[in-house]
Amino acid sequence: MEKYPYTDENLSFEERARDLVKRMTLDEKISQMVFNAKAIPRLGIKDYNWWNEALHGVARAGTATVFPQAIALAASFDEDMVESVANVISEEARAKFNMQQEKEDYDIHKGLTFWSPNVNIVRDPRWGRGQETYGEDPYLTGRLGVRFVKGLQGDGKYLKSAACAKHFAVHSGPESMRHRFNAVVSKRDLFETYLPAFKSCVEEGNVEAVMGAYNMTNGEPCCGSKTLLVDILRGKWKFKGHVVSDCWALKDFHENHLVTNNAVESISLAVNNGCDLN
To answer: How confident is the model at residue 173 (pLDDT cuts 50, 70, 90)?
Structure first.
């Protein structure tokens, strides 16, 4: 394969990425914006599946250490312990990834992009994901979220793995309504309750990814929300990572939220407001 600037490890990540992307065709770029991204052999890009989980241990990819659920870790009020747990998770994740790469196993749950931690604030016991969170306290959730992110990502030149703060935002209503629910929240409650943990993960933790929620917030679907993704996340907080939708959340735009008429309009709304990965 011909040597291009994006293969030069002496250049910055930004320079290498910019050079790589400009060499892709439009179809090749689109192929990288879905969770099961396809290989581009001519550019040396392998298949990659972005879907992986690590809320309390490396999930679904063979034997791994299983730690207590996040809600139980939060009951310790121990930031150092939470970071050490995440550090162990990332060590195991790296070992598994290296082994799987050698075997050319690029299947689901085999990557280094983990959709963790869940830093939503629990206010409704009918939500089925409360055990994945650190509870109902914005301050505690922010502190533990940052430390979990740091443990997963490490502090070296390269990320040990990529963490993802989810589900952005105001996501903890009844489970059965999550695909069509409109969370109406005051500006004060939004900024004092639901956003602080995400803000901390972005500004302190340098979290690599943020996942949008299924629901709408104040009438905008979260994965295509100008308010959340453009004005707050990338505008106020200067987020530099990537935004991923929750699983199949984009089709909710036209099937459940009814703010668009079809899949093309839904994808357009998401991409134009900064959602990078479906």
So the answer is: confident
| SS3 category, 183 | strand
**What's the longest Cα–Cα distance across the chain?**
56
Tell me the torsion sign for CA atoms 116, 119, 124, 125: positive
Q: Are 272 and 230 in contact (CB under 8 A)?
A: no
For residue 227, what are its two tokens? Answer: 């308010």
Mean pLDDT of the chain: 96
Contacting residues for 274 by C-beta, under 8 A, at least 6 apart:
229, 230, 233, 234, 243
* Segment 35-64 mean pLDDT: 96
The confidence band for 212, taking pLDDT boundaries of 50, 70 and 90, is very high
CB atoms within 10 A of CB 199: 19
For 128, counting Cβ atoms within 10 Å of its Cβ (0-12 exposed, 13-18 middle, 19+ buried), the class is: exposed
The torsion region of residue 109 among left (phi > 0), alpha (psi -120 to 50) and beta comes to: left
**What's the pLDDT score for residue 1?**
58
Active site residues: 246
Asked if 112 contacts 101 with a C-beta cutoff of 8 angstroms, the reply is no
